Amino acid sequence: MQCNEQPYQAPRLFIAGAWRTGSAETRSQVINPATAEVLDELRHASVRDLDDALIAVEQGFGVWRGVPAAERQRVLTKSVENMRARRDEIARVLTLEQGKPLVQARAEIDVAAGMVQWYAEQARRVYGRIIPSPSADTDYEVRKEPVGPCLLLSPWNVPLILAARKIGGALAAGCSCIVKPPEETPASVAKMVECFVDAGTPPGVINVVFGVPQTVSEHLIASDSIRKVSFTGSVAVGQQIARLAAPGLKRVTLELGGHSPVIVFDDVDVDTVVRQLVTAKFRNAGQLCHAPTRFFVQRGIYPRFVERFAAAAAQLRVGDGLDERTDMGPLANVRRLRAMTELADATALDATLVTGGTRVAGQGYFFAPTVFADVGPDARAMKDEPFGPVALVRSFDTPAQAVALANSTRYGLGSYVFTDSAKLQRQMINSLDVGSVAINSTTVTVAEAPFGGVRDSGYGYESGEEGLESYLHTKFIHRTYLA
Ligand code: NAD
User: Fold this and answer.
1) From the CB of 188, is ligand 1 less than 6 Å away?
2) Over the range 295-306, which residues count as b (16 or more CB within 10 Å of their CB) and which as e?
3) With CB atoms counted within 10 Å of each terminal CB, which end of the chain scores lower, N or C?
4) Ligand 1 neighbourhood includes 201 CB (under 6 angstroms)
5) Which of these, 319, 459, 296, 431, lies nearest to 374 by C-alpha position?
6) Are 97 and 237 members of one domain?
7) Which PANTHER family does the record associate with it (predicted)?
8) Is there an atom of ligand 1 within 6 Å of 240 CB?
């Protein structure tokens, strides 16, 4: 640790404009995944803390909904400035608790700030409309209003971007929120929330709680105060959240992971595509919902693709994210390490292991960048989301085969297509059963465009106009003027 760096500290709760120590009996440990050492203990919210947060978020909504859009924009813009100014400090905390290399942690703050920036600008563009009415003494008007206090549940893989996307949308629309960041990576998100607080969000507009996730969700979603829930995480938990929200008919946005296909046609330059895909596959140790996972490569270039891809994967430097030379850090928690070990063992039965496949020696949760080739279509890994540094490669002959393989999971989030042929591009766009398609690119999520999935990948959108819309409801006004 350099002398100007603060020791790691788990955050407290933030309720009604003040930081407070959680008063529950339960606590959890925050662990550095690069060393498996405990960084600190996180105190949880008691039922009383949660009830205070519910009162605060209602009061915060009462204030924030009346704040003019231009002022909301100013506060959000100032929050973005704070995030950018504190980038290095937040990045170090993120790397300590999540494991990703510092360069990726800094990039994450940049992207998170960019998401909030876009929402800040959109805050002033929430327009209603006037509809021509059938009568001379009647006006028809449509207005957009904030949906109300929101519960924002965000995960540990990309803690800043995924929380920022929710907080930015809610606050731009005029909603207040209770954020429950992941207990595994709490401090980076709390530091980002501080950026909003220091920018001048009134008390109660943004609140932060930690706890046993299921207990917190059950208590908060059951409250009449919460009008919308946004969750990013696993399918099983998404289903639970939808069930909890059903009795109160609360709005829900669910972003639940994917098993993204990559279709590479044989007209591409293999080395260029491999370079792009190795970076995208092993970024954040593969723990991204839109990470490329199933690589379908046309037969003409298949052997060369496998060889180059595996060679580039094997060259990645795996290590502590705090070391600037590291390309890929550890998995974020021991659950992912176990999951990767099991998945690799099961896949080996139905595929050829080209590189990796095992844990990297040491105390931390390191798993080698792994490439399997000739993976059978029915291998477990082709159905279960790896959510780790495992690439599954298989050849295809015809475009129709590629589509059938790509559409053969219950997920439908991101997808990637590499070809110069406009005809093939069009055929893929029309046939892939997914929320987004990147053509000759590895980016499917940007601040300006909607991001969401189909089938088990969830429903609703974040980012873009659709993301903001999900925090708004539409009010119709029929006004008749008395003679
Ligand atoms: P998990 O299902 O236990 O938890 C997933 C996330 O949901 C975690 O952040 C957790 O804190 C939270 N969570 C769990 N129960 C909750 C509840 N009742 N209410 C609110 N939040 C709750 O799994 P995990 O071991 O943390 O992650 C493994 C799987 O989760 C991965 O295989 C992946 O499919 C999925 N995941 C997806 C994303 C994504 O970006 N879509 C992010 C993280 C995890």
Assistant:
1) no
2) bbbbeebbeebb
3) C
4) no
5) 296
6) yes
7) SUCCINATE-SEMIALDEHYDE DEHYDROGENASE, MITOCHONDRIAL
8) yes
pLDDT, residue 6, reads: 79
Domain check: are 371 and 467 in the same one?
no
Sort strands 438-439 and 416-418 into parallel, antiparallel or unpaired.
parallel
Computed over every residue of the chain, the mean pLDDT equals 97
Q: Whose CA is nearest to atom 20 of ligand 1?
A: 213
482 part of a folded domain: no
| Parent domain of 344 | 260-447
Same structural domain, 244 and 314? no
Atom of ligand 1 nearest to the CA of 183: 11
Ligand 1 centroid distance, CA of 237 (Å): 7
Cα 185 to ligand 1 centroid, rounded to whole Å: 12
Mean pLDDT of 291-303: 98
In a domain, 109, yes or no: yes
Structure confidence at residue 176 (pLDDT): 99
Tens digits of residue pLDDT in 398-409: 999 999 999 999
DSSP secondary structure code for residue 134 in this structure: S
206 and 290 inside one domain:
no
Which residue's CA is minimally distant from atom 32 of ligand 1?
A: 387
Residue 4 has pLDDT above 70, yes or no: no
Point out the residues that are catalytic: 255, 289
Residues 206 and 311 in one domain: no
Q: Is the CB of 244 under 6 A from ligand 1?
A: no
pLDDT in tens, 59-98: 999 999 999 999 999 999 999 999 999 999 999 999 999 9
Are 291 and 235 in a shared domain? Answer: no
Q: Give the C-alpha separation, 311 to 360, whole Å.
A: 17
User: Which CATH number fits the domain that encloses residue 360?
Assistant: 3.40.309.10
User: What confidence tens digit (pLDDT) does each residue in 341-390 have?
Assistant: 999 998 988 999 999 999 998 899 999 999 999 999 889 999 999 999 99
| CA nearest ligand 1 atom 8, residue | 155
Q: What percent of the chain has pLDDT over 90?
A: 96
* Structural domain count of the chain: 2
Q: How far is the CA of 41 from the centre of ligand 1 (A)?
A: 20
Q: Are residues 23 and 114 in the same domain?
A: yes
98 lines ligand 1 (CB under 6 A): no
Neighbours of 58 (CB within 10 A): 17
For a pocket test of ligand 1, which of 234, 283, 331 has the largest count of ligand atoms closer than 8 A to its C-beta? 234
* CA neighbours closer than 13 Å in the CB half-sphere of residue 201: 35
Summarize pLDDT for 454-469 with one digit per residue, the tens.
999 999 999 999 999 9
468 vs 465: CA distance, rounded Å: 5
235 and 364 together in one domain = no
For residue 391, the SS3 value is: strand
14, 116, 17: which is closest to 59 by C-alpha? 17
